[in-house]
Amino acid sequence: MDWNSKRVEAILEHALLEDKATSDATTELTIDPDLRASATVLARQDCILSGLGCIPRFLALFAKLDKKRLARFEVISHPEIFDGVRLRKGQAIAVIRHNARVLLACERVILNLMQRMSGIATLTRQYVDEISSTSTKLLDTRKTIPGLRMLDKYAVLCGGGINHRLDLSDGILIKNNHISLGGGLQQVLTHALANRKPGQQIEVEVRTFEELDLAIKGSADSLLLDNMTPGEVRKAVKIVREQGLNIPIEASGGIHLENIRKYALAGPDYISVGALTHSAPAVDLSIKITAEIY
């Protein structure tokens, strides 16, 4: 993750502006402007870490927005603490040494982002662990929080998942609405194949074995088996492989932690799960701030 990219900077700066972090009314009235403090970021549950790099970027952006504050700060973490590592309850993630007012002003945005990202990474790892003994790989989807996709998908990587399409320009995926609006699967696929740019791969979503047959005969580059049972997925994989086709097969729809292993054992190359980013619960992190003693 490039925490210095303009896209990420825009997300973090918007978070500070949304919270009016430079206008913390309570802190302004109660905390000595020259007080320096140490803030320890703690894991309050077992989890997979994601978002550690947001801490120095939030603090640097705060200094950019409020030039009255001292920009000098230090973020200290153990070499064994990095995005993707498994944390235990009570474990320290990082220590931040900075002006006390700045720490209080940035506390919530730091926690909000890290809790969400670590939640996605933690849930992703649970899914990955369920299918670790199979050859199936876990994919994410575009079901992300608007504006946060880059961070959501990075968190999936931290959990051991694989990013699928980053956006609508990233690959061709013909889904049921394209099929119904475009005159049927055969017509839509034929048109897409004839007009695609060099190197573009075409994946087709199929919901029935009739659609599977049409997609195969139409020379789809890959297949998305949508809302099929594990038994139906197994049958579809067998049909494709018995024809000597080594095209990627993805399963999606109705797949969750309790049944993903059954789907993986049915033999698809990939399983995509929207819940990784649209339903991941935030993990419990906290920040404990203490005044520095000189």
Please tally the helical runs, counting DSSP H or I stretches of 4 or more residues: 11
Beta-strand share of residues: 15-25%
CATH domain class name of the largest domain: Alpha Beta
Q: Which residue ranges are poorly predicted, with pLDDT under 50 across at least 5 consecutive positions?
A: none
In the sheet with the most strands, the strands line up as 6-11-10-9-8-7
Q: So, the CATH homologous superfamily of the largest domain?
A: Aldolase class I
* Number of strand elements: 12
* Gross CATH architecture of the largest domain: Alpha-Beta Barrel
Described by strand count, sense and barrel closure, the largest sheet is: 6 strands, parallel
Structural class: alpha/beta
> The CATH topology of the largest domain is what?
TIM Barrel
> H/E order of the elements?
HHEEHEEEHEHEHHEHEHEHEHE
Describe this structure in words.
The protein is of the alpha/beta class and 294 residues long. The protein folds into two domains: 6-120 and 280-291, Alpha-Beta Complex (Aldehyde Oxidoreductase, domain 3), CATH 3.90.1170.20; 128-278, Aldolase class I (TIM Barrel), CATH 3.20.20. The chain is 41% helix and 18% strand. 36% of the residues are buried.
Strands, helices and their partners?
Blueprint: H1 6-18, H2 25-30, E1 36-43, E2 47-48, H3 54-65, E3 74-76, E4 86-87, E5 92-99, H4 100-130, E6 137-139, H5 149-158, E7 172-174, H6 176-181, H7 185-195, E8 202-206, H8 209-217, E9 222-226, H9 230-242, E10 249-252, H10 260-265, E11 270-272, H11 275-278, E12 285-291
Parallel strand pairs: 6-11, 7-8, 8-9, 9-10, 10-11
Antiparallel strand pairs: 1-5, 1-12, 2-4, 3-5
Helix pairs in contact: 1-3, 3-4, 4-5
